[in-house]
User: What shape does this take?
Amino acid sequence: MNSSLILSIITFVYGLAGFLYIFAWIFKKPAAAKIASWVAIVGLMGNTAGIILRWVESYRMGIGHAPFSNLYESLVFFAWTIALIYLVVERKAGNRTIGAFTMPIAFLAMAYASLKTGISSDIQPLIPALKSNWLIAHVITCFIGYAAFATSFGIGAMYLMRQGREAEAVTWLDIAKPLTLFIFVLLFSRVLLAGNWAMAIIIALPLCVLFYIGVLLVRRMPADVKNRLLGVFPEAAILDELGYQVTLFGFLFLSIGIISGAVWANSAWGRYWGWDPKETWSLITWFIYATLLHARLMRGWRGRRIAYLSLVGFAAVLFTYFGVNLLPGLHSYGAFSQ
Amino acid sequence: MNTKQSSDNASAIDQIWKSFASVKLTIGLLLTLAATSIVGTLIPQNEAPGAYLQSFGETLYRVFSLLGLFDMYHSWWFRALILLLVVNIIVCSIDRLQATWKIIFARNPRFNIARYRQLKNKTEFNQDGAAAHLKELYLPVISRRFRFHRTEDNDNGFAIYAEKGRLTRLGVYVVHLSVVILLIGGLIGSIFGFEGYVNLGPGDSAHTIQLRPDNQILPLGFEVRCDDFIVEFYDSGAPKEFRSSLSILKQGKVVAQKDIIVNDPLHFEGISFFQASYGQLSPTEMILNFTSQATGMIYSQTAAIGQPVVIPEDLGTFTLKKFTRQANFKGHNIGEAFVGELTPPNGQPIEVTLPLKFPSFDKMRKGQIIVAIADFVPRYYTGLQVSRDPGVWVVYTGFILMIIGIYITFFMSHQQLCVEVTTEGPKSQVMVAGTSNKNKMGMQKRVAQLAHRLENLPPP
Assistant: This one.
């Protein structure tokens, strides 16, 4: 039994948990949701064991280091933090439908780590730049931040499903929304899945069409079905508050993550800030969430607008995490191998 | 007339002040900074003009250059945006601090019982016992949870007011201050600091370094010497460790010494030396293989640069001329290579290129003798990043303040509580109500828990 095998199994455990959460939500089966929670807990424990075992294995190989050194390891840790933060939120909020929107993200992270070609699950020795005590502090804080933002993204999406439809029709918004969606999906399919832009368009187009078919189906749904599906969501005000609390948590950890990275950069390269694309993108993410906080606290923004900002913020998080690998810079450790 | 003008002036200043105190401006600036910052991650920064000309063409190059997009984070407009944000932060903070000063620094906090009675989320219950008895019961519980508390007696009962975390209202100003301190630290660094580099082979020393980005020469005021440099690789070929043994000399005397690796620099008199890069130097000695086309024999010979080697079978002499890091072959860059000169017994010398990447390269020449490099001990030079940044501690202070400030701002709150007890006969009616300036949901839960605890206190 090695760590890679355990982590492959955990991928399916998270998948099962996500599936059960969605099943329980759509078919209104609270028992299934309870099982889903237990499956998620088992998954989290297995994920923890996998990470620890990988740590131990690296020492056995004589190249001991914390398992936070490449894209595979970071994705595994990303899934771990999402599962952990979600389970805490579930306990606090006492509502299991949120799991249908967050556990699938943990599953996707693990599945992507296992399946994408170019992401090696081998334990590799550390290159000189990563040999630092700051590695653990920097990676852990950043990923707690990322995972918190992933959770607030899921909660924001739920909020929009619940409340987004009541918007008055604005023509430019009706055009801008699908266009923005397409650009984002295109960008991420290029970064995550496709090797070139043509392929990315081929992937992105059907995804967007599928999304809008889904939206259309939901709109045409009989009122009672719709009420049944959305009635089990936490109340809008609670979703709004919950998303905000998780965002605050993410903001604190993103700040610590950026700062620990700056201190590390200063001890490795002699400068705490160099406008390297990854640094810059983390700052862009920070700006977006700082905007969200100011808008909410000082301008009284609530609900839909905050939810949209969380979506944009999470897109920036993903781009900081993956997209930057397309750009030139120093932060190539977490990148795909060429 | 005069007074009107001065009041006009005052109102103009007021207007400017107000526009800078606007959170709309903050939001606009934050989003503009986020959006414009993207540009500099798409266009590689600080490259040679030629590279830009080639990839963008003449017109775009001029437009981009005019907008400072090739070094956009130091362009006038990006700096202006940051300056605007700083002014905005300072004005906003002063503006709001004036308004909350009295709340934050009041000696005797004021409590208004009507306000608590109006709160939606209050808990009310009846309890046996008279007011005096309940006061004795409740006070320890409340004083344990709240730093400040005051009891006011009235005709048929009493009210306990309690609060804590008043100073947490200052958290947001700490965050704002930290941003200003960070930028001041950055400014100090850019005015009084420098960033440069120096490359040293083993045994080499330097009194000067070259500055980035314009390669200006800067005297160090002392001498830095590389005593040794070791590169180690993993089996996979990935680098394992770069280690430079450095000595600092003043008037020929060693005053400091340290082995530096990546992540562990040498600091001397405010100047830091970082292990940044490395590269290959010309090896001093190598083994060459000469393959005779006529007999198929292979002769191994030790060679050094500049010393002619006599090839057996009377095939002439070979002299290594130089080592180059970028050899050219028919217009292609073939990487690191040795260049030598082969002189046949009776004939003109021929230049022979021996690239490290392609060991059997010389076969292509189709000469009588094939020259190949069999082995050599690589020699490396160390690339040191040299920097001085007197602002770094200011920046670090800003970092610490920012983390503390964000924690206080978002995870602590100013909490106020009121417990009112009204006695009627042997029974008392109790109201527990509380409020906080942040995380109101959390406060509601806490108030409910406290009410539950008070209700179920065992009698003393």
Residues 76-105 of chain B form the longest helix (30 residues). The two ends of chain B are 76 Å apart (CA to CA). The longest strand of chain B covers residues 217-233.
